[in-house]
What does this fold into?
Amino acid sequence: MYSLLYYKEKRWEIDNEEELTQYAQKLQKHIAILTYGNNLDEEAFDELIANYVTEESSEDPTKFNIRYDTYDANVSSPHRNNWLSGIQMDDEQFLAFEAAIERLDGTHVHIHHRVRGHYEVAIDGKRYSTSVYKTRDCSKVYREPVEGRYLFFIDEESEDNELLRSKMYTMPEKLQVLSLPVTISYEEREVYVRDWLKRLLKIIQE
It folds into this structure.
């Protein structure tokens, strides 16, 4: 079953060129980062947040809106998955924040801030769900967006996920996340996600 959600701030019905330009500029002021891995360092994460994240909010045009997501394959890890949004930083602050993230354990990728959803697949009468992110590979200097990939993670949305989610940290690292090109068709995507899930379930049963 295909169920990928796109979170969009506004439909494209704008017919005023100036308003459209302002809206496009607003979207460009958003940056989102995802860190994922196995047994992420909770203390390092807390230190990062304490050093770089404040509750200040302003309409300062020089600041970007930052979102930072994390996913730990080990659901029993002290580190709990986080979704921080509403962070505001200027260029200098963000570069320091990004550099600090790079020093943390795990894999760090830029993601589209308006794309975050779920994908569900039914296997043998059970419904398994995954979280889905869309990456945006970008230049360190210009951060130019390219097509990127979809990243799938076993989540905790479905009751049928409970055993699988609890065992994800024991899986080979290459199987803890499924990465697919965004150009793949809906039909191909379901085949690959279903195959990935079946491989995970087979390992658990062995």
In short: Residues 186-205 form the longest helix (20 residues). Helices lie at 17-27, 42-52, 91-102, 162-167, 186-205. The radius of gyration is 18 Å.
